[in-house]
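Retro notes (design track)

What went well: tokenization of the new backbones is finally stable.
What didn't: we kept losing track of which sequence belonged to which structure.
Fix going forward: every design gets posted as structure first, then sequence, in one message. First example under the new rule, 317 residues:
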């Protein structure tokens, strides 16, 4: 593997798990973990580092400061206050905006040429704020967006239909939050529109059950809150999602992921960050895919955009 360096800012549950997943999957051969709590970052980095002799490929994992991040290809920002049980992502907005305001100038000074992945919540708002604060090219700043929501959606659909999750092509658009939505009109199982699955998919010795779209939507929408209620945080699935984004960025062929980027008139939406299918490759955002949506789906997209703009208008950036 060619030399590759990724910095993770924030050594909490999400940041430390992301650093571990990046190392385990050998996505980079140098991983820096930064946190305002230096001893926490040192402990997490040392714990990961001591497992690396058992990896297939050598990985150098260590704690550092902003200067240590210099030369990073990708910077992942997970720092911020976590969401508490019963708390919405939007409730976190101003607190985590203030944290981003402190982090952004310091990390960009050390890594002016890196591509940035914002993971902290509310991710769409913080991606927007990061862009406005730094003035970086928009093709080098993205949020983890609804990629995790999309994974949850596909997992649930695959359970209903007894097919591999890899053959489920369905997405979650909009905000990573309450106004996200599933554009069912473009959902497919392999090449079959999901509306026709009963007529077109035949599984031996199996009866196709009715697809309960409302239940699937609720499963996708409520999963994060349920996990937080049960264990206090979400960390494993989001860490894998971030790894997936990094793998897409490092690929030489454009790959599709539902991540949050700045819109400029797509579907009549502009000056807000939210998730649509985006093309990632060769280290940056290469473009986006704009499927044909129904009038109802377009309305939901505008509702999501307006909800985010309403929050942004109330923030001190």
């Amino acid at each position: 593997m060619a030399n590759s360096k990724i910095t993770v800012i924030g050594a909490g549950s999400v940041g430390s798990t992301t650093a571990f997943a990046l190392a385990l999957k050998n996505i980079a051969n140098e991983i820096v973990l930064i946190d305002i709590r230096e001893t926490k970052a040192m402990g997490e980095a040392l714990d990961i580092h001591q497992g690396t002799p058992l990896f297939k490929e050598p990985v150098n994992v260590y704690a550092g400061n902003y200067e240590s991040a210099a030369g990073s290809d990708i910077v992942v920002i997970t720092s911020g206050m976590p969401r508490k049980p019963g708390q919405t992502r939007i409730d976190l907005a101003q607190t985590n905006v203030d944290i981003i305001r402190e982090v952004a100038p310091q990390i960009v000074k050390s890594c002016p040429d890196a591509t940035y992945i914002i993971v902290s919540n509310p991710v769409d708002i913080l991606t927007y704020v990061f862009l406005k604060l730094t003035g970086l090219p928009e093709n080098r700043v993205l949020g983890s967006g609804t990629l995790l929501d999309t994974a949850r959606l596909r997992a649930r659909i695959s359970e209903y239909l007894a097919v591999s999750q890899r053959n489920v092509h369905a997405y979650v658009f909009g905000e990573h939050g309450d106004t996200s939505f599933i554009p069912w009109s473009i959902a497919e199982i392999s090449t079959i529109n999901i509306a026709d699955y009963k007529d077109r998919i035949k599984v031996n010795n199996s009866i196709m059950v009715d697809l309960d779209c409302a239940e699937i939507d609720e499963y996708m929408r409520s999963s994060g809150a349920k996990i937080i209620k049960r264990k206090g945080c979400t960390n494993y699935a989001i860490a894998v999602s971030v790894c997936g984004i990094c793998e897409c960025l490092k690929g030489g062929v454009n790959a599709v992921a539902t991540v949050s980027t700045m819109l400029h008139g797509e579907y009549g939406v502009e000056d807000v960050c939210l998730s649509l299918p985006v093309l990632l490759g060769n280290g940056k955002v290469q473009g986006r895919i704009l499927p044909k949506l129904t009038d109802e789906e377009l309305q939901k997209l505008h509702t999501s955009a307006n909800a985010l703009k309403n929050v942004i208008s109330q923030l001190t950036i």
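Added context from the reviewer: The first strand starts at residue 5 and ends at 9.
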